[in-house]
Amino acid sequence: MSLLEVRHVSQHFGSLVAVDDVSMAVEAGELRGLIGPNGAGKTTFFNLISGFFKPTAGHILLDGRDITRLAPHERVARGMARTFQITEIFPELSVRENLRIPVELAQGLRMQPWLTRAADVRIKERIDELMQLGGLGAHANRLVGELSHGDQRATEIMMALALKPRLLLLDEPTAGMGSHETYSTSVLIRKLHRSQNLTIVLVEHDMRVIFNLADRITVLAEGAVLDEGAPDEIAASERVQEAYLGKAA
Ligand SMILES: Nc1ncnc2c1ncn2[C@@H]1O[C@H](COP(=O)(O)OP(=O)(O)OP(=O)(O)O)[C@@H](O)[C@H]1O
């Protein structure tokens, strides 16, 4: 059974069909890349998987269970977390304080009026572990708003990971980055994928990142699946080349 299964999903906005009868199955442990020209429907598709939109038609299954009508936070409870195209962090808080929010949430301790000393130790240990894993140890007490774009993105990814997802959805993690930061973000994603038993679906514009990281790639064009396969198959696909060249022309 696939970890994530999308069955014949469509999303209409009035007369516009942003996602048109898309099916996709992602196996546990896979890193799936999702690409497509501008306006292909990638972000809409991500919003459908993570529950920000409810599809006009079709079904979404996680571990074989239908989650189509579940709210985003209910999907988080089932093991799904996501990041956004625009980094969603609290710039006026430190890295440690940002991470504390999802760590408390994951441990069922958010909004508790008081914490036992043991619970507080557990929270701090988990924050330290996440900072270490994300390469953020040196920035623990710095305000996130003062960090580089790459470190802000790493903080956001580690906040998603704090929720202990099995499925992590990353929406353009290298958007707006220079080549150095793009490279270090790719290295982080690969490291997390390998060390944390994670399944990842990654939307990216940067083709080097996608072809370097993905086990398989799904290509969307005009809301529909244009092609799907291993990176070398997609690189050789005439249909895909035409879609990109056609768009650029
Ligand atoms: N909330 C919305 N209401 C109406 N139309 C929308 C909405 N969201 C997206 N669209 C339209 O749906 C289509 C697909 O958009 P979407 O943002 O999903 O594409 P994309 O592949 O993510 O594009 P990009 O690569 O530029 O981010 C576009 O025509 C867009 O204008």
Structure explained in plain terms:
With about 250 residues, the protein is an alpha/beta fold. The chain has one domain (about 5-249): 3-Layer(aba) Sandwich (Rossmann fold). It has helices at about 40-50, 70-75, 95-105, 115-135, 150-160, 180-195, 205-215, 230-235, 240-249; strands spanning about 5-15, 15-25, 30-35, 55-60, 65, 80, 165-170, 200-205, 215-220, 225-230. The strands form 2 sheets. The chain has a 6-stranded mixed beta sheet, sandwiched between helices. Strand 1 and strand 2 form a beta hairpin. The chain is globular, with a radius of gyration of 19 Å. The model has no long low-confidence stretch (mean pLDDT about 90). The structure holds adenosine-5'-triphosphate.
Task: Summarize the structure in short.
With 249 residues, the protein is an alpha/beta fold. The protein has helices at residues 42-50, 72-77, 95-106, 117-133, 149-161, 179-195, 207-213, 231-236, 238-248; strands at 4-13, 16-26, 31-35, 57-62, 65-66, 80-82, 167-171, 199-203, 216-221, 224-229. It is 39% helix and 24% strand.
